[in-house]
Amino acid sequence: MGCARDEPVSSVTPAADVGPAGSPVEKEVVSAPDIKILDAAWAGDVDAVRQHIAAGTDLNTRGEDGGTSLHAVAARGNVEVAMLLIDAGAELNAKKADGGTALHSAAFFCHEKIVRALLANGADKTIRNGAGGTAYDGVAGSFEDVKPIYDLVLQIMGPLGLQLDYERIKAERPNIAELLSAQ
Asked: Does residue 10 lie within any of the structural domains?
């Protein structure tokens, strides 16, 4: 995952490698797709994310808000893309400009499978965002108390494709809080 570029690296071409007994072996070099990894993750484009991983794209490329691809899928809730990124070594505790991690996002948007995957793979639930809150703090209170925050987030990110199912979020917040409060 060393390539820091997010544009195509090259077309698919053979590259020399050394096989057993020092004999040259041809291996395929995969190019990154035309879509940026951040955009592919946000869109839930599994094939493009796989291609980025195979091409060695930097999985921790940052967007304007300082967020990575893992932050994007944690907010959108695409479990398959989240697992691809986690398994490929995306930085679990990377902080966005606001100090939030992917765990903060997955918890706030109540994506339980992603929260579980992040925790199972070593995400730090004690990290505090810029407002001083942990991922647990984002789901500890009542839904009614934080609904205006969800409304604001939806107003800002709705035009980018974010959809919020308030009934699901309201029902899941206590479960996410329990997951994050467990030892």
From this structure: no
For residues 79 and 110, the answer to whether their CB atoms sit within 8 Å is no
Do 87 and 64 touch, CB atoms closer than 8 A?
Answer: no
pLDDT digits (tens, 9 = 90+) for 62-88: 999 999 999 999 999 999 999 999 999
Query: Residue 61 domain-assigned?
Result: yes
Contact 69, 45 (CB under 8 A): no
Confirm whether pTM is higher than 0.85: no
Provide the 3-class DSSP secondary structure of residue 64.
coil
Q: Are 68 and 37 in contact (CB under 8 A)?
A: no
Structure tokens at 124: 């730090």
Q: Is 15 within a domain? A: no
Structure tokens, 96: 């966005």
Count of C-beta atoms within a 10 Å radius of residue 180: 19
Q: Considering the domain boundaries, does residue 99 fall inside one?
A: yes
Residues of the domain holding 102 = 23-181
Find all residues with CB under 8 Å of 50, minimum gap 6, and list them.
84
Report the domain count for the chain. 1
Beta-bridged to residue 3, according to DSSP, are: 57
